[in-house]
């Protein structure tokens, strides 16, 4: 399998995992503490998967013209990332810095921390 194909498959699998974490179930998302215990590549894949899931949800909402509040909350961050054309490495770096700078929040879900990090960065 080519490197690009493997990477796309890994991102898709991560995005599916994140979507399942965002849907009602008995599964729980990683906390910031658990996420920090992962290796650098796994942390990056997790953040990339979260952002990909948000982008997918927002794209579907835009294509069908609905305004589901559970999805609309991500639209501002997704729009910001689209406008700024931030590479994945920079998005991950923003989240890494936020988590490191806010150790008191390490018990929160990583999806929430990623959202807070990117929302904060986009508001600058």
Commentary on this structure:
With 124 residues, the protein is mainly α. The protein has one domain. Helix 1 packs across helix 3 and helix 3 crosses helix 4. The chain is globular, with a radius of gyration of 14 Å. The chain starts with a helix and ends with a helix. About 11% of the residues have low confidence.
Secondary structure: elements and pairs:
Blueprint (H helix, E strand, L loop, with lengths): L2 H20 L9 H6 L2 H25 L4 H16 L3 H14 L8 H13 L2
Helix pairs in contact: 1-3, 3-4, 3-5, 4-6, 5-6
How many DSSP helices?
6
Order of helices and strands: HHHHHH
Structural class: mainly alpha
Q: Enumerate the spans where pLDDT stays under 50 for 5 or more consecutive residues.
A: 12-16, 18-26
Rg is 14 Å
Query: How many domains, as an integer?
Result: 1
How far is the first residue's CA from the last residue's CA? 41 Å
Mean pLDDT: 82
Shape: globular
Q: Oligomer, anyone?
A: single chain
Query: Helicity level, as a percent range?
Result: over 70%
Q: Tell me the strand percentage band.
A: under 5%
Main sheet makeup: none
Tally of strands: 0
Jot down its keywords.
single chain; 124 residues; mainly alpha; 6 helices; 0% strand; globular
What would you say about this model in short?
The chain has 124 residues and is mainly α. It is built from 6 helices and no strands. α1 (3-22) crosses α3, α3 (40-64) packs across α5 (88-101) and α4 crosses α6 (110-122).
């Amino acid at each position: 399998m080519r490197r690009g194909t493997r990477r796309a498959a890994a991102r898709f699998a991560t995005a599916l995992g994140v979507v399942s974490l965002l849907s009602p179930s008995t599964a729980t998302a990683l906390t910031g503490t658990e996420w920090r215990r992962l290796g650098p590549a796994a942390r990056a894949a997790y953040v990339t998967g979260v952002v990909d899931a948000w982008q997918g949800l927002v794209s579907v909402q835009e294509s069908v013209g609905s305004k589901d509040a559970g999805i609309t909350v991500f639209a501002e961050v997704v729009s910001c990332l689209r406008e700024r054309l931030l590479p994945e490495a920079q998005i991950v770096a923003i989240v890494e810095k936020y988590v490191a700078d806010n150790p008191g929040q390490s018990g929160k879900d990583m999806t929430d921390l990623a959202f807070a990090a990117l929302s904060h960065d986009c508001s600058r």
